[in-house]
Amino acid sequence: MSGAAGASARPVAGARAAQLLAARLPQAVLRREEGYGEETVVIAREHLVVAAELLRDDADGLYTMPLFVTAVDWPDREPQAPRFDIVYQLRSLHFNDTCRLVVQVTEADATVPTLERVFAGMDWHERECYDLFGIVFTGHHDLLRILLPDDWEGHPLRKDYVSFGEPVAFTHNLQWALPAQERPRDMPGASR
Amino acid sequence: MGVSEARWDAGLLRAQSDAPAIPLPRSGARERTAVQTGVITTTVGKVIAWGRYSSLWPALFGLACCAIEMMATGNSRYDMSRFGAEVFRASPRQADLMIVAGRVSQKMAPVLRQIYDQMPEPKWVISMGACASCGGIFNNYAIVQGVDKVVPVDVYIPGCPPRPEGLLDAIVKLQKKIAAEPASLRG
Amino acid sequence: MAAVMPPQGGPGGADPFAPGRDRLGVRAENDAVELVELGDNTMELNMGPQHPSTHGVLRLVLELDGEVVRECRPDIGYLHTGFEKSFESHTYQQCIPLTDRMDYLAPPINNFGFSLAVEKLLGIEVPPRGQYIRVIMCELARIGSHLVWFGTHALDLGATTPFLYAWRERETILDINELVSGVRMMTSYIRVGGLMADVPEEFDAMVEQVIHTFPKFIDEYELLLTKNPIWVQRTRGLGVITPAAALAYGCSGPTLRGSGIAYDLRKAQPYSSYDHFDFDVPIGTRGDVYDRYLIRMQEMRESLRIIEQAFRNLPGGPVNTEDRKVALPPRNEINTSMESLIHHFKLVTEGFRTPRGEVYQAVESPRGELGFYLVSDGGNRPYRCKVRAPSFSNLSSLPHMCRGELIADVVAVIGSIDIVLGDVDR
After folding, report:
1. ipTM for the complex?
2. Which chain A positions have a beta carbon within 8 Å of B153's beta carbon?
3. Which chains pack against C, by 3+ Cβ pairs within 8 A?
4. Do B146 and A179 touch (CB under 8 A)?
5. Per-residue pLDDT tens for C249-267?
6. Which of A65, B20, C288, C396 is the most exposed place for a label (fewest CB within 10 A)?
7. B75-134 residues touching C, CB cutoff 8 A
8. Which domains does chain A have, with CATH numbers?
């Protein structure tokens, strides 16, 4: 398991990237956080593209493989702190390391510059993040919904999006146990 | 020769030697000897129903995990072709059975309806698995809670995924349903 | 399809499928994205989502110039199930059956990745016997998944015999699944803290049977296809992807290894005692469909090697962690000890709590790097569980691989990426 072998403990994942950024692009690094053997770098939004290119191209980094970009929604942080954490995870095969970058954006200004020209694989991941969270990636050539139908309203993975399919049938709402065609027509939600 | 010692071809030998027929323990014994002489009496409805249920051609509609069990049912161990349902047609226009195998997402529901509409009558629908029958374990925004909201279903199969024997049982039940309904009911 | 899904477009622009719009293709050269103008003397063909060869509900919109594919736009989302939203409303152990259904060809591996991520947060370690059995079950699942890939890929290209042969072996693996967990496919056997239960006695005989008989069967499959001139002609030199492009798209697994990059998480970042076993990682040279086929065939053999080593050296002892705040107490204790009974009740109804924090844990699935990015707010449910699906990234390289190929070859390329739509769409 991770680092539990004892003698040679695994290096902290992402430490290399954090050091590289701190050395070459210190103005981009807002904060460094460490936990569970992994290090996260919080980046300023305006320096994101430059930081990603640095991590990809620098001989000490070579983080050439994009893993994903996603968001984490902390609605209770507003208005003191930004609501969304946009999380990027990159992998360096050369140094066998993976690093995490975080950009924090508020709900009112949920935009981030696109990384699709830095990593081709970020194209679809950014579309997915837009689809599920509503984060707009400025400069993306074709930011459309990818997983949900094109006319879907709302962004499901936000914490204020209530997700439910159908009530579970108990004795007080037993009509829900009937097959769809046999339910009473005027039942609320019968046609959903 | 008692019934306990009867061999599978005993009836054949007997018929050839013009001996009285062995009373077989199922209906159709009379038809069986009649077949040897070349004449069967039945009704047109029964023949049509027999033709319909003995050669159900499923449309390929495997969506998710249940599709893998559907493939396993069609393979050598469980062998759906024993029931005449081996020929999976890719085009719905050549199929008469739609086995909805897997969860139907909101984006897929119009496609499901379109494929169903493209199938010619008579057609039947088997809803395979919990997700197709009622939404399964996914009671959320993305999954249609039961495919019977989109197409009319004849047989529901519970399971996640149902065992291949479950799918075979559903096909047998559907065959009995087809045998029971009047031939003029569907086209 | 345009009538069925009226698109409104995102902030970027209009509907990509509307005729007359400037068609822009995207190409990756040496990991940068380049926008290319397409001609307009082409035919647009819709492939899927109901299609025998798309391996699920995948829709491709192909721009054809005669028989040659100029542009291929995958349209996914037809199996979007909302797993990540569902994770947020289930306790950690309740999430395990959900993870089964994502990559449904190798369910134990999904359970494995999720369990490892949660165990990383909790800081607990599974005993060696549990780790070895996890490895055995996952490698069996890997073989089962490769058998499905083998059967369906060959079937798409017109060979029906491998389909029947592959499933014959897969039934043996499903029998083992059923023996240990009661379920053929969605085992939910690997759980946080260890396993559902220790393996029964018949497990030994069945795994011995697998170890003895499968190498011969895999030779049989190779006999059918590997030197078959039709197969070689249909797959060699097709769907080539360069190593740099594969990396840029985030490809992993055989799709990446086919291009010559020897990256396998079981070797690079060993988890759950994979470093105790001796096995090789096959890589290709040309990055074409044929190389990816050879890699997966060899991977089946390597998995058998791992299973044999793990099985022969299977240690004794418990399979679940000793931490009683996470693992269910043994059944005999529940009858006598009040604390055990209360623990059992709390663990099943409420679940255990994880400390605050975030982890990323990846495992090597048959498709590539399956990663779980797990964020916890200190509660008993994942606050956010992002699943990094290998098929999603591998599929994004499909347009790159299909450009310039004949339309009949698109089917071969899709088969060689070995996508599972449950993984792509989640």
Report:
1. 0.88
2. 179
3. A, B
4. yes
5. 999 999 999 998 999 999 9
6. B20
7. 75-77, 88, 90, 92, 102-103, 105-108, 110-111, 114-115
8. 15-151 (3.30.460.80), 161-192 (no CATH)
Would you place residue B88 in the very low, low, confident or very high pLDDT band (cuts 50, 70, 90)? confident
Q: Do C81 and B141 touch (CB under 8 A)?
A: no
As a whole number, the mean pLDDT across chain A is: 86
A168 interfaces chain C, CB cutoff of 8 Å? no
Examine the pLDDT at C149 and tell me if it is beyond 50: yes
Q: Mind listing the pLDDT tens digit for each residue in B101-155?
A: 999 999 999 999 999 999 998 899 999 999 999 888 998 889 998 898 899 999 9
A170 touches B at CB < 8 Å: no
Chain A residue numbers with beta carbons less than 8 Å from the beta carbon of B148 are: 179-181
**Which domains does chain C show, CATH number per domain?**
90-425 (1.10.645.10)
Q: What is the pLDDT of residues C12-62, one digit of tens each?
A: 344 444 443 334 444 444 444 445 555 567 888 888 788 877 788 899 999
How many CA atoms are closer than 13 Å to the CA of C294, on its beta-carbon side?
A: 20
**One-letter amino acid for residue B131 of the chain:** C
Out of B65, B88, B106, closest to residue C104 by CB: B65
Tell if the CB–CB gap between C79 and B141 is shorter than 8 Å: no
Neighbours, chain A (3 or more CB pairs < 8 A): B, C
